[in-house]
Amino acid sequence: MASYLRTLIDGVQYDVDFIKGHTLQPTWYKVFKIFLVMGILTLYWLFFGWTKTILFLVIFGILCLGIHMTYRIKTNRFTRTWLDFKVIADNEAVKYRRIGGYYYSAVFLSAIIAFGVNQL
Q1: How far from chain centre, in Å, is Cα 70?
Q2: Structurally, how many domains does the chain consist of?
Q3: What is the DSSP letter of 94?
Q4: How far apart are CA 82 and CA 103, in angstroms?
Q5: Which of 32, 49, 78, 116 is the most buried (most CB within 10 A)?
Q6: Collapsed DSSP state (helix, strand, coil) of residue 95
Q7: Phi and psi angles of residue 17, each rounded to the nearest 5 degrees, phi first
Q8: Model pLDDT for residues 41-64, shown as the tens digit of each residue
Q9: What's the rounded mean pLDDT across residues 89-110?
């Protein structure tokens, strides 16, 4: 059990380090999306209350975790090109092109699904 926990913690740390340092989104957008998400959740709370907001957040989080893990597996821990995730080989370091339509479409679809399930 301890080895599984260590592997999980190492995996999460790897992903956190990747998310902090990637060039898939401009730095200003990484900061802006925090405020965007907080604003959307605030509006959701004002219209639907705490229970539905938390439920939406849980459903959306699970769906986005699925997207993240799919990209992580298909790109071999973000080292291989897949769909709109482009790895550019450089002599000095690995670089990435901006993430594209497939990823954002999946996130948008996840939000719609989470909203629909939440409102049932």
Answers
A1: 11
A2: 1
A3: -
A4: 11
A5: 78
A6: strand
A7: -60, -40
A8: 999 999 999 999 999 999 999 999
A9: 89
Q: How many CB atoms are located within 10 Å of the residue 71 CB?
A: 19
Show Cβ contacts of residue 114 under 8 Å, excluding neighbours closer than 6 positions.
Answer: 56, 59, 60, 63
CA 55, CA 70: separation in Å to the nearest integer? 23
Taking only the tens place, the pLDDT of each residue in 17-38 is 998 888 888 889 888 999 999 9
3-class secondary-structure state, position 85: strand
Residues in the chain: 120
- CB-based contacts of 66, cutoff 8 Å, min separation 6: 110
Report the candidate in 55, 27, 29 with the shortest Cα–Cα distance to residue 41: 55
Alpha-carbon distance of 61 to 46, in angstroms, equals 20
Domain ranges, residue 27: 2-119
Q: Phi and psi dihedrals of 75, rounded to 5? A: -100, 10
| Closest-CA residue to 62 (of 70, 33, 29) | 70
Tokens 């380090």 belong to 17
DSSP-assigned letter for residue 87: E
